[in-house]
Design brief:
By secondary structure, the protein is mostly helical. The protein contains ten helices and two strands; from the N terminus they run H-E-E-H-H-H-H-H-H-H-H-H.
């Protein structure tokens, strides 16, 4: 039986072929020249571990905020449409606002894929339909939501998309009217915007409990993750202005049960 092809296929170095390639790797630096110089070095070192870098697929992303009078090749204002906003990393767009819009589009596609399930009515219980919706659609909308630095206005778009789906699932679409509060109560769910805040809060707890000496740097974007976290803390009457507050916050996060109650 030695003539049979192994499954999975194995290379000459006796490693499965699927293991010869690494997943995506990101390097960050304030100087592009450093990254360009790092690429061949990184490739040579990783090849020693049978990990191969495809230089032709390597992308360099420049994060910046365009000036108000800056325009693109077509003469249109570039502010708010910088190229980096459409870049995708680990399945998410780097701009939280653009990623939320994309998540709503993907969720609508996923919702339509199960259209026959939503139309079953009483033949499939509402509880079961909502479980399917949670697994197949909400999971798409909420992917990576714990890293969003989005305003309340952007999160409202998420809630609008969510409510539209819920109304179709329970069969109460226009011209039938149902209040948002009544809709959430009937479906036994909460607005996705509130779930985003809880997910971000849980993630902050994990970060505070971890041991790290890495230092962050505040960018010049009008809305960033640090500012969003500070707003979350302010809503819970928790001070965060100096290193002592950070130390107290880590102590607070060490009690997981109490931390979850603050969500």
């Amino acid at each position: 039986m030695s003539y049979l092809r192994p499954n999975p296929p194995i290379a000459e170095n006796l490693l499965p072929l699927e293991w010869e390639y690494a997943d995506d790797v990101d390097f960050a630096d304030e100087d592009k020249d450093n990254l360009e110089a790092l690429l061949p070095i990184c490739k040579a070192i990783l090849e020693e571990w049978n990990l191969f870098v495809n230089e032709s697929k390597t992308e360099f992303t420049h994060f910046y905020l365009a000036e108000k009078n800056e325009v693109d090749d077509k003469g249109e204002p570039l502010r708010g449409r910088e190229p980096w906003r459409s870049s995708v990393s680990l399945g998410s767009k780097l701009c939280s606002g653009d990623d939320i819009k994309r998540r709503c589009v993907l969720a609508n596609v996923a919702f339509q894929n199960y259209k026959k399930v939503w139309e079953q009515g009483a033949r499939i219980s509402l509880k079961t339909r909502l479980k399917i919706y949670e697994a197949q659609v909400v999971s798409v909308m909420m992917y990576n939501c714990n890293s969003w630095a989005a305003s309340k206005q952007l999160l409202q778009k998420l809630d609008v998309c969510h409510r539209k789906h819920l109304r179709q699932i329970i069969g109460m679409t226009y011209p039938t009217i149902i209040k948002n509060k009544t809709l959430y109560k009937r479906c036994e769910v909460t607005p996705l915007s509130e779930r985003v805040v809880r997910a971000r809060w849980r993630m902050l707890g994990h970060v505070l409990r971890s041991e790290s000496t890495m230092k962050g740097r505040i960018g010049r974007h009008q809305s960033n993750f640090l500012k969003t976290i500070c707003c979350d803390l302010k809503d819970r009457d928790i001070s965060f202005v100096n290193t002592d507050d950070l130390y107290n916050l880590r102590i607070l996060a060490s009690d997981r049960a109490h931390w979850r109650k603050l969500c």
